[in-house]
Amino acid sequence: MKRPGRDDDPDRLFTLTQGRTRPDSDAFDLVTLVVSECDPAPGMQSEHAAILRLCRTPAAVVEVAAELRLPVGITTILLSDLLITGRITARHPQARPAGTRLPDASTLEKVLVGLREL
Description:
The chain has helices spanning 10-16, 46-54, 61-68, 72-84, 105-116; strands at residues 33-36, 59-60, 88-91. It is mainly α. Helix 3 (61-68) crosses helix 4 (72-84).
């Protein structure tokens, strides 16, 4: 079974991030809420423009990745670009109780797939 984003051409993913393998900001985890601060600009990278449209209302990083059909790591690099330029804001949801862990990315992806199939 082909997994969108996961099985994409590595050259495409390399191009999207301009060869970067890590975001320039450590502001993001799977549940960080992202909100657009502006509309897409002409000539903007299509994925950046899609993020700005998608995040007109708050969206979690994992939701953005699922909508773009990109791995979370690639998505956080793109989000970092937008955060550094002031085009988005990012905030963490309220603190979780001590000792609780976030589910891993694959579990969250399965939940999103299941929700879409409803």
